């Protein structure tokens, strides 16, 4: 398999990647094809595909914030079972992030990720791809060491229509493996930076941020 970075919508592999996203994710979670132009050209956003026999069989997008020394996994898609794609993408991503942190003169502190909670929302089928089943993905994140941040999470729709997306948890992977809480100010700063691109956020998102700003730390709980 090949770990290939996508930096342009003109890359022929991007069309395959976008089709895979449409097959797996709910419509409100997928940016339109043309709207990917700027994100892909942004050096801070890292989009990679897993290529097997000339076909895109998996993809992941993530970013590293030098000033926070944390990363965010935007998404991970496994398109076919039985190829070890999930482990391959996770390891390649982590190797890349450790390299970015090292170049920043630091050791990576941790990584955020959003995860659907199938115990609250059961209708996500993710294209019928079993490794993408939300129950499976939740257990995988737990095995990787991610923990759930203890607050009701609201995700602004990527349609930028002001709608709130619920039924998700914001999680965090502490690289030292021993943290049981996280600075709320870091969470707030991260969320404000991450969602800057969306100008039309729901009021419930602002309310969530305001509640976080009133606390010093947020508990990290088992997934």
Structure description:
- The protein is α+β, with helices and mostly antiparallel strands.
- It is built from six helices and eleven strands.
- The strands form two sheets. The protein has a nine-stranded mixed beta sheet, sandwiched between helices. A two-stranded antiparallel sheet has the order 7-8.
- A hairpin with a 2-residue loop joins strand 2 and strand 3.
- The longest helix is centred in the middle third of the chain and has 19 residues.
- It starts with a strand and ends with a strand.
- The model has no long low-confidence stretch (mean pLDDT about 90).
What layout of secondary structure does this protein have?
Layout: E1 2-5, H1 12-24, H2 37-41, E2 45-52, E3 55-65, E4 70-78, H3 85-103, E5 110-116, H4 134-144, E6 147-149, E7 155-156, E8 164-165, E9 168-174, E10 181-183, H5 184-194, H6 203-213, E11 217-221
Parallel strand pairs: 4-5
Antiparallel strand pairs: 1-2, 2-3, 3-4, 5-9, 6-9, 6-11, 7-8, 10-11
